[in-house]
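Lab notes, practical 5.
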Amino acid sequence: MSLLLAGFFLTQSANAFSLFGYHLWGEKEEVEDTIIEPQTYQIDLVVRGEEDDVVDAVEGASKLYRDRDTPASGTAGLMARARGDYARILTALYGQGRYGGVITIDIAGRPLKAYNASDSLPPDVPVTLTVDPGPVYSFAEIRILGRPDYDTRETRRLERPEDLGLVRGQPARSGIILKTETSLIAAWREFGYPKTAVQREIVADHASRTVDVTLNVDTGPYARFGPVTVDGTERMDPGYVGYMTGVPLGQEYDPDVLKRARERLRRLEVFRSVTVREAEAVGADGLLPIGVDVAERKRRVIGAEAKYSTIDGAELGAYWVHRNLFGHAERLRLEGRVAGINSIDYEDFDYLFATTFTRPGVFTPDTDLSARAQAKREFVDTYEEKSISGRVGLTHRFSEELSVSSAVLVERSRIDDALGTNNYLLAALPSNLDYDNRDDKLDPHEGIHALLEAEPFHDFYADNSAFRARAGLATYYAFDRQGRIVIAARAAAGSVLGPSLAAIPASRRFLAGGGGSIRGYGYETVGVNLPNGETTAGKSLLEGSLELRAKVTDNIGIVPFIDVGTVGAETIPDFSEDLKIGAGVGLRYYTSLGPIRVDVAMPFDPGPDDPDYAFYVGIGQAF
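Output from the prediction step:
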């Protein structure tokens, strides 16, 4: 196969010259304004064989067909659309493995080549586009020169040419060849060759209806990471930005390192755009310099948030954030929140006021230091808590999916529940391990989210020590590639080791119920039932949810669901405890920001403080 390049040349008098609309010398020629009348047309698209996949490909490629309701810019515009369709439709046919196609375009019964751009055409001129796709060709001889070793750890996740369909006898779709080239380049980049290129030779034999493919891989030079340069900073320290990329000078080139560098810089919340680029060529010393281009965002932001459910009531919050205090992306956040607004009595409201300081990149680019001070009043049906606390902790990200955090916490609280009113002075070490490889945090179709929480704590007033642990897992399965039908499942279990139920602060025990737990029941109304008829938080927890997320249209989805859970008085969960079940159905409206969620749920065994049904509204799936 050969590729013909057409050149277009413009000649004009040497007495006058203009370039790109700017007059440079000579007498300026006066040009009268020309009004170009829109050219309407009626298209008749005929695809021989009428195979659905071919028809869809041709309709998607043809500009004449796609823009049939938009008039062309005069006769010249219509000619341009038609001539461009030859290449576009031919490319689409190659993508279907059809290399012998014939494309014919007639205007008013005459071939396209019979017209000039200056010709006059009547309105709604008939255009006939006929495509004979021809037979499907198959791959014959396949040669890959410079094939990498796909069995190594670095490239095991990449698809091999055979996995992509580049196999003798298979349909010779052009997309398979292009994907194979991409796979070859990606594999060699994993081995430290960033400038790998592939030269292709494709020969179609129309007699045998086969295609021979030769791919010659030129790996280019082996490279190690060179120095990092930063452009575009205003208030940020460019040296710190280079440090936060984590690109190691002198280490073997690895594209995953650059991917993580981009994510680290985006996570700083300082930049509105981040570009990490490789130098055009590897230096004579074997180093590949890396450039970083950034554009900073405004340093200060004010925001508000609101939530509502018929059970939990309304929740209103506001915050102020400074994103870059001293040039190293230090963040200061001041926030306040009022929740439980389902009456006019402010004494039933929950309050929270907090200040959080975060310093990214301590010790390593993937380690953040945070300090937080907060005061809150939380009132639920089973207890009331007033507390003030402070904590200092570290968070380290091993990868984009896995992170671990730990903090030192001091808390002074007063809690009133069914077991009495108690004061506590706690020292704790809250820690968690978080693994999240979901494809979309707001609307996941695949992946898992696992969270393990652990908190040893000591109460200095009662001289008691205890250990609280909770584990949660959510997983998803899509029945189709588009994710129109997804099964989502969630499970959680928790336990407290230590003294008696009454000696453990209610805030460190477990409750269930509400929008993030067992829907249909009141917020944290599911607990341990005491002999006096009251409910208190327990020492163990079991929860589970199952949803079927089905899209009815591209924008509307229906989600039937069921939630179950129980709270026990002992450290080990007891399945004989009263099991609470809630079920319902949800409506989803899918937007570019994520699905808007409206759920209605009913409790199967409501308690005295539970409603007959409950509504929940939010952005994103329930889990």
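Observations recorded by the TA: The chain has four domains: 38-132, 138-218, 224-295, 417-619. Residues 224-295 form a domain with the Ubiquitin-like (UB roll) fold (CATH 3.10.20.310).
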